[in-house]
Design a protein that fits this description.
The protein is 29% helix and 24% strand. It has 20 helices and 23 strands. β12 (236-240) and β13 (243-247) form a beta hairpin.
Length: 488
């Protein structure tokens, strides 16, 4: 099992992206388009990636690698091993399976041979009853090759008695709880499906005569594909040479799309729910300025995720926007920190304060979230060391007080700052002049819900803020996790 390089301290205090998936059918050298799509989705998973392709002469072929897409799927030698007009791919961050010690066997897509032919599958999300399913399947004779929850789907398909691969997938996914967006392929079909709540994203596009499925619209843009629509919650699409067949195999449920996709996970140049992610984040900043005004001289983003919200805050408040913190664009997650002295430099390896702008100023820092608070304290110290008179934090999401179990790697609840402290206690802990989070109602207004949050039936999954889980995390509850009504 290979030990991955340590994450940089700056990354450790942010919620980790889930995974990214991409599939395409009906184009020459499909794997090349998948590699480009995965490159556009690299922000969703940077530990590893994989591609499976199929062509009539060579059958199924796959390549799975650790690290970035650009380092693994750009050489002609590798791409020549992935021929054919049909391919799917996946970029991974380990929200399930081995954490920190990523094994190649956990890298998706997964492949299986069935009585009616082979199939490969790539999954974004998290199966909340995976451990219970795994125990049941092992007792019935299944042999697992990975520690990933996604492999459960392959084994459930193998045990299904349905007549073809799409029907077996429907059968398998009815047993699965949690959140999932899936792309899969047979020798002549591309399949896409979202869970009934639609927690994780999946979009549909066209490229000439070909069809494309991807986690975000930015992956369509990079290959010049036309965005058609989002796959609906609970919808399965099966695409082959005859066209697209849309099915709705699951019992309808209220839509619970992950609201944090708007705040942080999705790329700002993607479209979610017909809205520009960038414009939504700017609207979040405007709402934050209305809810939490403060006298100051400049508004600075914590790069890069805080930038659109900081622009919105500046526009609404009239306080000048300034790049008070500069990000080192060449400082990757896999930077080797060889000595304790270098490790202690922490955030300074990735961020540097623009001292000429900061000195003597009252500074508003806008960030997307506060998780553990460790990075926020280091950034605050850098700003004060540069001569700032005051430091005010404005956070473009409500306090993150509950872990996510739907495909986001979140610390245990007791390690979340907002789970154990009030807003004022967090301000004292961070030692800043003021600290304010956008309200949950304000966040809903920014994403287009003019009336704010409907408490009886919230329009999004906001469990990380509210503690209200649309699907009970049964595996975690078996381990002692207490839902909000019990915990409080």
């Amino acid at each position: 099992m290979r030990q991955m390089p340590p994450a940089h301290p700056f990354d450790d205090d942010h919620l980790k992206e889930e995974c990214g998936i991409f599939g395409i059918i009906g184009v020459t050298d499909a794997a090349n388009f998948v590699a480009l799509g995965l490159h556009a989705l690299q922000h969703r998973g940077q530990e590893a990636g994989g591609i499976v392709s199929h062509d009539p002469e060579h059958g199924f072929n796959n390549a799975r690698r650790f690290g970035y897409v650009r380092d693994n799927f750009t050489s002609q030698k590798v791409m020549e091993t992935l021929p054919g007009p049909l391919a799917i791919g996946h970029v991974r961050y380990s929200t399930a399976g081995s954490k920190g010690q990523t094994a190649i066997r956990d890298v998706q897509p997964f492949f299986g041979e069935f009585a009616m032919g082979g199939a490969a599958i790539a999954h974004n999300g998290n199966i909340t009853n995976a451990e219970a399913l795994r125990r049941e399947l092992i007792e019935r004779g299944s042999i697992f090759q990975s520690s990933s929850d996604s492999e459960c789907i392959i084994h459930l398909m193998a045990r299904s008695l349905q007549r073809d691969i799409p029907e077996r997938m429907e059968d398998a996914l009815r047993r699965v709880e949690g959140a999932f967006s899936v792309v899969a392929m047979t020798s002549n079909q591309l399949i896409g499906v979202r869970d009934a709540h639609g927690v994780r994203p999946l979009v549909l596009g066209r490229l000439g005569e070909g069809w494309v499925l991807a986690s975000e619209t930015c992956a369509l843009d990079i290959i010049g594909a036309e965005f058609l629509r989002e796959i609906e919650p609970g919808e399965m699409v099966v695409i082959d040479e005859s066209g697209l067949d849309s099915r709705h195999p699951f019992r309808p449920r209220p839509s619970k799309f992950c609201i944090f996709e708007h705040v942080y996970f999705s790329r700002p140049d993607s479209i979610l729910g017909g809205r520009s992610v960038y414009e939504t984040r700017e609207a979040i900043g405007r709402e934050l300025a209305k809810e939490a005004p403060v006298e100051a001289d400049i508004v600075c983003p914590v790069p890069d995720s805080g930038t659109p919200a900081a622009i919105g805050y500046s526009l609404e408040s009239g306080i000048p926007y300034a790049m008070g913190i500069i990000r080192n664009q060449y400082m990757g997650r896999t930077f080797i920190e060889p000595t304790e002295q270098i490790r202690n430099m922490g955030v300074r390896l990735k961020l540097n304060v623009n001292r000429a702008l900061i000195r003597g100023k009252r500074v508003i820092l806008v960030d997307d979230s506060v998780v553990r608070g460790t990075t926020s304290r280091k950034i605050k110290e850098m700003i004060l060391d540069a001569g700032a008179r005051e430091v005010h934090f404005r956070i473009a999401s409500p306090p993150t007080a509950w872990p996510c179990f739907y495909g986001v790697d979140t610390p245990q609840r007791e390690k979340l700052l907002a789970a154990t402290m009030s807003e004022e206690e967090m301000r004292e802990h961070l030692a800043v002049d003021s600290l304010k989070f956008i309200s949950l109602d304000g966040l809903y207004r920014a994403v287009g819900e003019a009336g704010g949050r409907n408490d009886d039936c919230p329009q999004y999954c906001d469990a990380c803020f509210s503690g209200e889980y649309p699907v009970e995390p049964s595996d975690m509850m078996e381990k002692g996790f207490r839902l909000k009504a019990v915990a409080e």
